[in-house]
Please model this.
Amino acid sequence: MTTFIELLLGGLSIGSVYALIALGFVVIFKATEVVNFAHASLLLAGGYVTAVLHDDIGFWPALGVGIAGAAVVGSAVEFFVMRRYRGSDQSVLAIVTIGVDILLTTELVRRMGTDVMSLGDPWGDDVVTIGGVTLAETRIAAFLVAGLLITVFLLAFRFTSWGVSMRAAAENPQTAALMGIRLGRVSLSAWAVAGALAAVAALFLTVFPTPGLERATSLAALKAFPAAILGGLDSTTGALVGGLLVGVTESLATGYQSDLSFLGRGIGDLAPYLVMVVVLLVRPAGLFGTKELSRV
Amino acid sequence: MSEATKDAVAPAPAGATTTPAGESLTARLRRPAPYLWLAGSVLLLLLPFYLDRFWLQAGLFAMAAAIGAIGLNLLTGSTGQLSMGHAFFLAVGAYGYCILGGESSTENGHAVTGLGLPTWLAAVLAVLLAGAVGGLFSPIAGRLSGAYLGIATLALIFIGQHVLFNAGSLTGGFNGRPVPPLSLFGFTFDDAEVVVAAVPFQSSEKLWYLALAALLVSGLFARGVLRGRPGRALNAIRDHRIAAGVMGVPVARYRAGVFVLSSMYAGLAGVLLALVFQRTVPEYFGMILSLEYLAMIVIGGLGSVAGAVIGAAFVSLLPQVLTHYSDSLPLVSAPGTGGIAPGEASRYLYGAAVVAVVLFLPGGIARLKTPGEKKK
Model:
């Protein structure tokens, strides 16, 4: 039972990190209708900046620069690439983001080489034991920070004028533009926010018990895709639920791997995708996604 | 590089040669397209007599990739359904062929199962198997659209990798398994030397003609599909799903159908790749391969057969060319020496090419001549 609770809590914690990534992904989709396949490389960029700088300027400033850096990279992609596209087909833009992803990932992976980089976080490998349940401090921090950021984001999305213009643009871009909302700024800010959230997620994807920032980190970041899809691409609630679901499934599948050995080694990494396939079979639009309704 | 570009350029003007019925013979003879076709075909048929093994292998990879890319282009380019799972179907084809056609043996202490069917039958069945697996995915492929499907098909990549690494008795696990040489009507495409016109023919030379024939048939078939009723239906689904449905196109069935067809193309490409590699390893069939195929069709031109071939030649020959000439190229250095390795350099180039083509050349290289065509 203790194992189960430990796994569940660990899963919720990593799930909240996935939710953070998926949230950025969903924000870009809502604001611009672009599915951003370059999201994992934004995350890698943020983590890389933090990892390089933390020795010289300390962890917290480095994290700040990393977050800002990822936001800048995100906005740069929007400004220099997305905005230049003159066509109307958004699925072609998704392919552009794949091109951007190839470029960014190749560059970052080349710089990292085979190193495993530490981000220099203050938690190290300390653990906390409450009533027989042992949890890493990093996991608690991840859960609290992700929860805080998600709350702040959702409140901002609901109550600030930025959030209102974002939602208006998502609802109907033409009308929003006629009402004086600058769509360029909306999508620029969406990319920046997504980058910043991804950089925070990068920190928590690479802290204990994972070894650190390495090539495989982008694979871990990819698990936010099934999270976003199974929640429903256009739903922020969906991103949260999807993230948690993916995290918990992954954690449980990894934890009980020995009982699932007939499925082969490494089933934990596969679990998020299997869950996604099952959900899509039942609900093609995801759990919370709006069913596509069209007026002709 | 010339061999594949020639091949790619040749079909492009062929689209323009739908000659009006009343045209005179002299006018027809004056058109350049048939001559280009002829010159291209002769050149491609003669190449094995002149090129060494390295370039023949590179050309074979390009041709196999071209077949796979034609299939992906039917799905992504013509129907607007993004697929990141193409590498999975390549793996199904490659491993399907090995399992069906190979003998049971012991590799590095692991038992590897094989059915030992005649290899030509194994090749056909492997393609059908890829189609069947694509069909299994049709409840999802038929209902999801565009980028949604792209992410859903990511699952296939990871499932595929998991199975390839874990089902050791079928796939040979991490080290992969050897590929039985294909034999067709008693003629075996193996490394036994056959001397033709004083040129020793080994597997590359023999496979060259097989791949050429396969590419030709695949290309013509895809062109037939695109020009006929199904092609119009697929384009209609891409351009306006609801209008297509109203016009009586069974949208879900067509989406599922084109997914199966594109899987079969990938399966055929996988069989060819396996024959060229002579050994299948699971690592090759990862996500990067899928991204390469998407890059191919975007660079070449979405929705056109010639575009897929051009893109495939570009993306698959680029690393080979860079590796071969890495000594004399600036900025590129041999792997492991600290500079930009040829593989990375080619990834930069085609990554940038994808972005540049979509932004500045909608329609890809295949439609270079008429850039204004797609503007609305």
Summary: Chain A has a mean pLDDT of 85. The beta strands of chain A are 127-130, 133-136. Chain A touches chain B through 47 residues (CB under 8 Å). The first helix of chain A runs from residue 2 to 32.
